[in-house]
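Worked example

This section walks through a single chain of length 68. The input is the sequence exactly as stored; nothing has been trimmed or padded.
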Amino acid sequence: MASRSSRKESRISVIMTAGRVKRVREIVQANDTSIAWVLRQAVDRYLEAQSATSVRQAGKPPATTKAR
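Given that input, the structure is written out below as tokens.
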């Protein structure tokens, strides 16, 4: 695994509702981890789901809209 200093990374700010922040903090406490780790895991899972959706839709013809 590459050292952290040799990987290209970006810092991103996210604005979330108080309710979402509270839920993330509950997950952090329950798993004895950091907010950053929880958010990276969430983004990774979202990106994997999007990739799976793209693969499934690759064989389908594009959706069309009907003119009114």
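What to look for: The chain has a mean pLDDT of 86.
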